[in-house]
């Protein structure tokens, strides 16, 4: 019976360790999700500021009676800057998601390895 108690204790410790690692993983996932949300909020704030600046610039140009071509150029430049900002945000999100996936793969490999080691230990007892 002592052997069974020892095995049960080993199994229980491994289960507790896996649960602890899963909890830590969930915390990292939550942090990454929060970071993505924060980046999106910041990008939205920047976008709002830039849109306001752009509108003000166009109004100023209209009041100064500048020609239509200059206004169209400002609109074009604004749209290009907007696309650049969106691409920057998407690039940052992609990098975070790549890191997240790499982290998950490493964790998955660790779990498989621990499970494999556990099976070897457990089945070698029989």
Q: What can be said about the biggest beta sheet?
A: none
Average pLDDT, all residues: 85
Low-pLDDT stretches? none
Compute the number of structural domains.
Answer: 1
Strand residue content = under 5%
Number of strands: 0
Keyword list:
126 residues, mainly alpha, 2 helices
Task: Summarize this entry quickly.
The protein has helices at residues 2-63, 68-124.
What does this structure look like?
The protein has one domain. Helices cover 94% and strands 0% of the residues. It has helices at 2-63, 68-124. It is rod-shaped, with a radius of gyration of 28 Å. The two termini are 14 Å apart. The model has no long low-confidence stretch (mean pLDDT 85).
Which helices and strands appear, and what pairs or packs with what?
Elements: H1 2-63, H2 68-124
């Amino acid at each position: 019976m002592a052997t069974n108690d020892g095995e049960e204790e080993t199994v229980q410790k491994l289960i507790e360790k896996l649960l602890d690692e899963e909890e830590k993983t969930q915390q990292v996932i939550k942090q990454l999700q929060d970071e993505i949300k924060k980046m999106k909020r910041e990008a939205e704030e920047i976008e709002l500021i830039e849109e306001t600046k752009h509108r003000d610039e166009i109004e100023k140009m209209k009041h100064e009676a500048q020609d239509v071509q200059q206004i169209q150029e400002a609109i074009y430049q604004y749209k290009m800057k907007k696309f650049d900002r969106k691409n920057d945000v998407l690039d940052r999100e992609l990098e975070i998601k790549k890191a997240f996936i790499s982290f998950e793969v490493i964790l998955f490999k660790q779990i498989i390895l621990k499970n494999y080691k556990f099976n070897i230990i457990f089945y070698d007892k029989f």
